[in-house]
């Protein structure tokens, strides 16, 4: 099979018919009749699943992977990639904020530059000042703490070769961050500037962004653990120097003044630091706990659709 188009469904019902029509047209221009459209229902609360199943009845190129519940966007994307069969795989969101027609331009650039991945990057991040500021802060913090060179304002849309997708699927961690995995998988990857549309309000609140950053950093770097060691070392040396200073002052100058406020402030400060450092270690321990159990990161309830007369997908 020449081309697979992979998309996830979550509250996608208003866009699904137009998405299918536009993807079909773009796929036919690129691959003729040799393509498939893999839709992964990530526990969508609306009727996205029913609409998608309806597409499988009228279009043999469509397959629907129905997950047993909502597992999250990144895990659903990986499940869709694992279900794809094309020599080229185009990954895209189904809410039409990213244009299905990009796949033709991506394919031309892939051929011209002999690369394995062409991915979209926004020239200017959409949203207000807080959205732009928090987005820029996330990418800078992620690169600083992990050393992984993930570009700013990257979007989901990307065209990938089969060998790259197979290599990407070798990553088997349960608490995955797909943005980092895209980078560390390697191969020659080139970017293309795109303009992302705004069809719906973002679902990423500030708390979700912070949680996403914590998960991303702890998935790719042990630097926070190293930071706790050096922080403890600096605090211990500072305390030792202060003890020496107080001893000299008490012996040769005068007794240091007593102060209840300073004592309480010091206790609160160091107690907070201890709890903070224990929390960092706890995050890593929880990740180890999750990984060693080897639970599947998604569970497929049912697969709908037929391909080239082969019957249901396995």
UniProtKB/TrEMBL annotation:
Gene3D superfamilies: Spore Coat Polysaccharide Biosynthesis Protein SpsA, Chain A. InterPro entries: Glyco_trans_2-like (IPR001173), Glycosyltransferase_2 (IPR050256), Nucleotide-diphossugar_trans (IPR029044). The keyword Transmembrane helix applies. Pfam families: Glycos_transf_2. It is found in: Membrane. Its main location: membrane. Residues 4-167 form the Glycosyltransferase 2-like domain. Keywords: Glycosyltransferase, Membrane, Transferase, Transmembrane, Transmembrane helix. It is a multi-pass membrane protein. The chain crosses the membrane at residues 225-248, 260-285. This is Glycosyltransferase family 2 protein.
């Amino acid at each position: 099979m020449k081309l697979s188009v992979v998309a996830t469904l979550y509250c996608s019902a208003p866009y699904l018919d137009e998405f299918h029509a536009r993807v079909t047209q773009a796929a036919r221009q690129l691959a003729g009749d040799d393509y498939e459209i893999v839709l992964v229902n990530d526990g969508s609360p609306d009727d996205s699943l029913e609409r998608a199943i309806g597409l499988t009845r009228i279009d043999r190129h469509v397959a629907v992977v129905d997950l047993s519940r909502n597992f999250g966007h990144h895990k659903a994307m990986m499940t869709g990639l694992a279900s794809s069969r094309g020599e080229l795989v185009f990954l895209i969101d189904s809410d039409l904020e990213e244009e299905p027609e990009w796949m033709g331009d991506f394919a031309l650039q892939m051929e011209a530059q002999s690369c394995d991945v062409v991915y979209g990057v926004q020239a200017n991040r959409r949203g207000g000042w807080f959205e732009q500021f928090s987005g820029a802060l996330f990418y800078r913090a992620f690169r600083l703490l992990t050393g992984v060179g993930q570009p700013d304002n990257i979007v989901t849309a990307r065209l990938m070769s089969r060998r790259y997708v197979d290599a990407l699927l070798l990553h088997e961690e349960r608490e995955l961050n797909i943005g980092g995995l895209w980078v560390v998988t390697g191969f020659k990857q080139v970017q293309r500037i795109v303009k992302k549309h705004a069809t719906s309000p973002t679902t990423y609140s500030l708390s979700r962004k912070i949680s996403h950053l914590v998960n991303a950093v702890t998935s790719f770097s042990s630097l926070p653990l190293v930071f706790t060691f050096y922080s403890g070392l600096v605090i211990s040396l500072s305390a030792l120097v202060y003890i020496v200073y107080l001893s000299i002052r008490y012996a040769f100058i005068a007794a240091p003044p007593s102060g209840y406020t300073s004592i309480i402030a010091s206790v609160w400060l160091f107690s907070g630091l201890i709890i903070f450092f224990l929390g960092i270690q706890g995050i890593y321990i929880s990740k180890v706990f999750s990984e060693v159990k080897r639970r599947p990161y998604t569970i497929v309830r049912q697969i709908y659709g037929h391909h080239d007369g082969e019957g249901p997908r396995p």
